[in-house]
TrEMBL record:
Known role: Required for the formation of a threonylcarbamoyl group on adenosine at position 37 (t(6)A37) in tRNAs that read codons beginning with adenine. Is involved in the transfer of the threonylcarbamoyl moiety of threonylcarbamoyl-AMP (TC-AMP) to the N6 group of A37, together with TsaE and TsaB. TsaD likely plays a direct catalytic role in this reaction.
Residue span, Gcp-like domain: 24-348
CDD domains hit by this protein: ASKHA_NBD_TsaD_bac (cd24133)
Subcellular localization(s) per the UniProt record: Cytoplasm
Protein name: tRNA N6-adenosine threonylcarbamoyltransferase
Sequence similarity: Belongs to the KAE1 / TsaD family.
This protein's GO CC annotations: cytoplasm
Record's cofactor remark: Binds 1 Fe(2+) ion per subunit.
EC number: 2.3.1.234
Lineage: Bacteria, Katanobacteria
């Protein structure tokens, strides 16, 4: 039996978790500074790191207390070493190194992108996931398609040529005035309102966005163009807004254009522009992600398809994958919603299935790691 303490501090979360045998969550504690970043419209790296310095020890102590485990009962310590914000990564890495030395426990560096995949292994029999598998990793900073032949055995088959999928969601949400930060949920919520209104026959869709690179022979993506298309739609329908639409204006401001911000109280009287654009944007993005991934699954003749990363929480994306794979031999795996965003649970799980301890002196934070970087899998 393995009992691994995972530590995650790649962005603005400070998380610790104790996981048994790679799939059973014994305890998990997470602190975030997102409320601060909400006010500033994005993560300020130094602010995030300073809050993590404040949170890290209470979070780790609280996790062990919640788990009812003392340091002597741990099999190892796992920590995210990258990619991420360097200041934030250092907080977690140096804490893990100190604990490894003090407690005499093996230290396992984890690639954050690889870690995301292991949200699929939580609370299930790991043998259910049959290799090879195609994995789509979609987050605020990354969009990657990889062939996973086994634990620690990856082949990169495609990815974004410019912007990450999650970034396109965030920037488009800003352009539409739906959210200043973490725009994915806001886009999804607005799109759902439009979809439901569309089904009732109360509105009609007046345009569609192009599906970028959906017909290309490779497995790459491009999302910079659709951000530009969203901006063009905003300027075309509300010329007076222009570039200012990319900045969040608080709802209490008298200068807010009510058609380009989210307001649940608008009801039937809402300005439909933002909702329609959000809907069409989400449809275009998810169509491309599903088409490319299913194409890869067929070409590489895999047994499983896995989703990972924050964008994998998108309900529209999940439903489209479910429908697309319904009549195929590929089994779909998606992480629980709460494990799509950053947490320490999948970091500990990843370490269990890739148990390769490294001397603490050699463990360093590396913000530039990619899914294929070997530094975190040695």
């Amino acid at each position: 039996m393995s009992l691994i303490l995972g530590i995650e501090t790649s962005c603005d979360e400070t998380a610790a978790a104790v996981v048994r045998d790679g799939s059973e969550v014994v305890a998990s504690v997470l602190a975030t500074s997102s409320d601060i970043h909400l006010k500033t419209g994005g993560v300020i790296p130094e602010v995030a790191a300073r809050k993590q310095v404040e949170y890290i020890i209470p979070v780790v102590e609280g996790c062990l207390l919640k788990a009812g485990v003392e340091s002597a009962g741990l099999s190892a310590i796992a920590v995210t070493v990258g990619p991420g914000l360097i200041g934030s990564l250092i907080v977690g890495v140096e804490t893990a190194k100190a604990l490894s030395l003090a407690w005499g426990k093996p230290l396992i560096p984890v690639n954050h992108l690889v870690g995301h995949i292991y949200g699929n292994f939580i609370n299930k029999d790991p043998s259910e996931i049959k290799f090879p598998a195609v994995v789509l990793i979609v987050s605020g900073g990354h969009t990657d398609l990889v062939l996973m032949k086994g634990h620690g055995n990856f082949k990169y088959i495609g990815g974004t040529l410019d912007d990450a999928c999650g970034e396109a969601f965030d920037k488009s949400a800003r352009l539409l005035g739906l959210a200043p930060y973490m725009g994915g949920p806001a886009i999804a919520k607005a799109a759902l309102v439009w979809e439901e209104t569309l089904k009732k026959g109360e509105v009609k869709t007046s345009f569609t966005f192009k599906r970028p690179m959906i017909g290309s022979k490779d497995f790459n993506f491009s999302f910079s163009g659709i951000k530009t298309a969203v901006m063009a739609k905003v300027k075309n329908r509300h010329p007076a807004i222009g570039p200012a639409a990319s900045f969040w204006r608080q709802p209490e401001s008298k200068n807010v254009d009510s058609g380009f911000r989210w307001n649940d109280k608008q009801g039937a009287g809402f300005n439909s522009d933002a909702y329609e654009i959000a809907y069409e944007f989400q449809e275009a993005i998810t169509d491309v992600l599903v088409a490319k991934t299913v194409k890869a699954a067929k070409e590489y003749n895999v047994n499983s398809v896995m989703l990972a990363g924050g964008v994998s929480a998108n309900t529209n994306l999940r439903e489209k994958f479910k429908n697309a794979l319904l009549k195929t031999s590929h089994k779909l795996f998606v992480p629980p919603i709460e494990l799509c965003t950053d947490n320490a649970i999948y970091i500990a799980s990843c370490a269990h299935f890739n148990f390769k301890p490294v001397s603490y002196e050699k463990v360093i934070a590396d913000p530039s790691l990619t899914i294929m970087s070997s530094a975190a899998l040695q």
